[in-house]
Design brief:
Largest sheet of chain A: none
Shape of chain B: globular
Structural class of chain A: mainly alpha
Number of helices of chain A: 8
Oligomer: heterodimer
Order of helices and strands of chain B: EEEHEEEHEHHHEHEHEEHH
Radius of gyration of chain B: 18 Å
Radius of gyration of chain A: 20 Å
Strand content of chain A: under 5%
Strand order of the largest sheet of chain B: 7-8-9-3-10-11
Structural class of chain B: alpha/beta
Largest sheet of chain B: 6 strands, mixed
Number of strands of chain B: 11
Helix content of chain B: 25-40%
Helix content of chain A: over 70%
Distance between the termini of chain A: 51 Å
Largest interface: A-B, 20 and 27 residues
């Protein structure tokens, strides 16, 4: 039983890591589009964020799973489920992260940009060295919330038939007529999130050398 | 060969329908210390922001020495493109009312980061210069502190050092002591006086009249978007010719 749950956990962990690797960077261009001076770009980002946050992740997963077949007539393979699941998670979380980035970026006082401009920093330098480090510190608590939610959200992959930890636990519960696998799965989710919390706490502490 | 460091001619600037600068001309010569005084909303800060390229002029011209930043042939200010704004920025420095230090950088890094990243100076050279400036500002021992560990007066002195580290030809101050209590104000003003004694060219927007009288070679009184009166400090502050200058001075001293 533990071995099966362990394998399920590895799938959940993979989904977790891939989602973060994809959505953390993808949120950046979305946030910039959302703040763009060009109205069409701004609207595209607004609609994207609104759909991602306003519809269930589970539905998005199915939409992405079936879209290639219905739209392009591409036949689905056993791998498609996993791919659809990862893509859905990435684009969904990118929507949330984009809004967190935006709130962080907009909280940086104008004076920081002006000081950098007068000192001769380029726009890219201003972003990389002056703005981004400050934004990182400010958004860390909000990012932490999303990341902890993501750990639990990976269980939604169960709906599309990806064999992650929750689906494994459910199968075990059915075959063993016992609730114990659920309890163990819950414990593993919690322990994992406990580790995530520790890491986030360490990151916050590292950035605690200044306040403003 | 001129010893003019900065020259603004016929500067005009409006925000919406509100004309903030109406035909302002001002020339600053090398080594000169000019104080700009006047009521809030009179255009002092806008003038400084236009001179430091944080705002663009609607009309008029702006140059730093031989470098023409904006010219006006009668149809509004036309700004030079390409490298010119960058070159101009290397010629002036600006000290803000609320310092605008980089909170995530130490004092040392606040002062050395721009010389290293913008002017591509070697780190050792930038740090050696920074240590000189830190000593000059009376901040020795604070190199590795971050701004939030310093008093307002110390922060403002760091921001002066940060501006000086780029070796500007002219330094602008936008109400450098308005966010400080009297004691901290004194230490910042002392530093500015030291710079004046070293012939640093400076333009200072200030409400500290006593200080303006002490440090400035020339005082400019601005109100309603115009220069109402200018001249030697003693003349403008102690014996103003214009009615509006007299009213302003009596209001703030009374």
């Amino acid at each position: 039983m533990m071995q099966m749950l362990g394998q399920g956990f590895l799938v959940s962990l993979q989904l977790f890591v891939l989602t973060l690797l994809g959505s953390i960077p993808l949120g950046i261009p979305v946030a910039f589009m959302r703040m763009s001076k060009i109205a069409p770009l701004r609207w595209i980002a607004r609609i994207y964020i609104s759909v991602m946050r306003g519809t269930p992740l589970m539905l998005q997963m199915f939409a992405i799973y079936f879209a290639p077949y219905y739209v392009f007539g591409i036949s689905l393979t056993p791998d498609s489920k996993w791919t659809a699941c990862v893509v859905a998670f990435i684009i969904n979380y990118a929507g949330y992260f984009a809004e967190i980035y935006r709130s962080g970026l907009q909280s940086i006082p104008r004076g920081q940009y002006e000081a950098a401009e007068v000192l001769g920093y380029s726009r890219l330098q201003t972003f990389l060295y002056i703005v981004m480090p400050q934004v990182t510190k400010r958004i860390l608590p909000a990012m932490g919330n999303e990341i902890i939610t993501l750990v639990k959200d990976t269980s939604l992959a169960f709906a599309i038939g990806v064999g992650e930890m929750f689906s494994t636990a459910k199968a075990l519960v059915a075959s063993q007529v016992s609730m114990v696998p659920f309890a163990i799965a819950a414990l593993i989710y919690w322990v994992f999130n406990f580790v995530v919390e520790m890491l986030l706490g360490a990151a916050e502490k590292k950035l605690d050398y200044y306040h403003d | 060969m001129t010893n003019s460091v900065m020259k603004i001619e016929s500067a005009r600037k409006a925000f919406g329908g509100n004309e903030v600068l109406k035909d302002i001309s001002l020339e600053i010569k090398r080594g000169e210390v000019v104080a700009i005084i006047g009521p809030s909303g009179g255009g002092k800060s806008t003038l400084l922001r236009c001179a430091t390229l944080l705002e663009t002029l609607d009309g008029g011209s702006l140059s730093f020495g031989d470098l023409a930043v904006a010219t006006d042939a009668g149809s509004g200010a036309i700004y030079a493109r390409g490298d010119v704004p960058k070159q101009a920025r290397s010629r002036f420095g600006l000290v803000f009312q609320n310092y605008n230090l980089f909170p995530h950088y130490t004092v040392m890094k606040n002062i050395t980061d721009a010389p290293i990243r913008v002017l591509k100076r070697p780190r050792e050279q930038a740090e050696a210069r920074a240590r000189e400036l830190i000593a000059q500002m009376g901040l020795t021992g604070n190199e590795n502190k971050v701004p939030c560990e310093l008093s307002g007066g110390q922060q403002q002195r760091v921001s002066i050092a940060r501006a000086l580290a780029l070796d500007p030809e002219i330094l602008f101050f936008d109400e450098p002591t308005s966010a400080l209590d009297p004691e901290l104000t004194a230490e910042v003003l002392r530093v500015i006086k030291d710079l004046a004694a070293q012939n640093m060219t400076m333009v200072i927007v200030t409400h500290a009249m006593q200080f303006a009288r002490d440090v400035a070679d020339r005082v400019v009184f601005m109100d309603g978007g115009r220069i109402v009166e200018e001249g030697p400090a003693e003349q403008v502050i102690d014996h103003p010719r214009e009615q509006r200058t007299r009213e302003f001075l009596s209001r703030i001293e009374g």
